[in-house]
Amino acid sequence: MDEQKQVSPLVKMGLELGPVLAFFVGYLLVRDQVFTIGGRDYSGFIVVTAAFIPLLLACTGLLWWLSGHLSRMQVMTAVLVVLFGGLSVWLNDERFFKIKPTIIYLFFAGLLGVGLLRGQSWLQYVMEGMMPLRPEGWMILTRRLALFFAGLALANEVVWRTMSTDAWVNFKTFGITVAMFLFFMAQSKLMQTHGIVQKD
Prior knowledge:
The protein is mainly alpha-helical. It has helices at 9-30, 44-67, 72-91, 95-117, 122-127, 135-162, 165-185, 188-194, and strands at 34-37, 40-43. The protein has a two-stranded antiparallel ribbon with strand order 1-2. Belongs to the YciB family.
């Protein structure tokens, strides 16, 4: 098994969030423009999506090269970006890319739900080294996170189906990031109640 290498948290954050921020900035720059390529007109959203795909893959590959490890979520995100982003570009239809977050969040909500039905916290399997919790703490956190992911999937559907592309880009770039930060901040009491104090 490959040993995971230590990577600077700032470098890791830059490689994970950099492509998302680049997408946001790129969209702001060209959102009102139409590009004619090969006789077809493409909106700025589609052009930025086409640029986002190789950028995300490059950053994901660099993260793997530096750390020797990628999480399941990172791998799945890369696969779905290629699939749904590619469909958006190929079919010149932005809806495919907008539905990608829904698929990701439903997948993880369902995956955690299956584990819960089996009486297991599959979240513990992935994150145990990061957050030492007692088994009951992992089960509570897993239930909450499964519901949270389902809520994000629903929110993404509501936003992209009822609001403008500008609103969706802002929601995807900032809304989801803030929601995740607040969710984990809200788990501080759970961490205190069910956390395991590690002794030296």
